[in-house]
Amino acid sequence: MSVSVKNVGEAGRGLVALKDIKNGELIVRDTAVIAIPANVDVWEAGEEIMRQIKKMSSTEKEDFYNLTKKDGIHQLCNDLVEEASGDTKRLSKATKIAKFCDEIYNYFTINDYSN
């Protein structure tokens, strides 16, 4: 393989080239661990991720939860609940997000590498 997963400092883990890679060369082919349909917004993402995690083997679940974690996502989940405290509908949505915070922060971490 022409790449390796290595710790790249504050960014967490990333793919690092082990040799010169030619323009257009296929580096790696893999399947997604979690696939979120385009019509699912962040408010429902945690539930969808959890549904898919429940189908995983114990090893797959452990690997998923060991993905690089994003600092600040737990604080964001807590802040959403706090900010929504006066609005029942928003509070319900914010509570759902907080319930699946561990799954959601892995989702955001994964998406950051695709940019």
Order of helices and strands: EEHHHHH
Distance between the termini: 23 Å
Poorly predicted regions are: 110-115
> Biggest β-sheet, characterized?
2 strands, antiparallel
Counting helices, strands and paired strands, the structural category is mainly alpha
Please report the total strand number as a whole number. 2
Strand content bin: 5-15%
**Overall mean pLDDT score?**
78
**Total DSSP helices:** 5
Main sheet strand line-up: 1-2
Rg (CA only) = 17 Å
Question: Helical amount among residues, as a percent range?
Answer: 40-55%
Shape: elongated
Written account of the structure:
By secondary structure, this protein is mainly alpha-helical. About 50% of the residues lie in helices and about 10% in strands. It is built from five helices and two strands. The chain has helices spanning about 40-55, 60-65, 75-85, 90-100, 100-115, and strands at about 5, 15. Strands 1-2 form a two-stranded antiparallel ribbon. A hairpin with a 5-residue loop joins strand 1 (about 5) and strand 2 (about 15). The longest helix has 13 residues, at about 100-115. The relative contact order is 0.15. The model is unreliable at about 110-115 (pLDDT under 50).
Provide the fold topology.
Layout: E1 3-7, E2 13-17, H1 42-53, H2 58-65, H3 73-83, H4 88-99, H5 101-113
Helix pairs in contact: 1-4, 1-5, 3-4
Summed up, what is this model?
49% of the residues lie in helices and 9% in strands. The protein contains five helices and two strands.
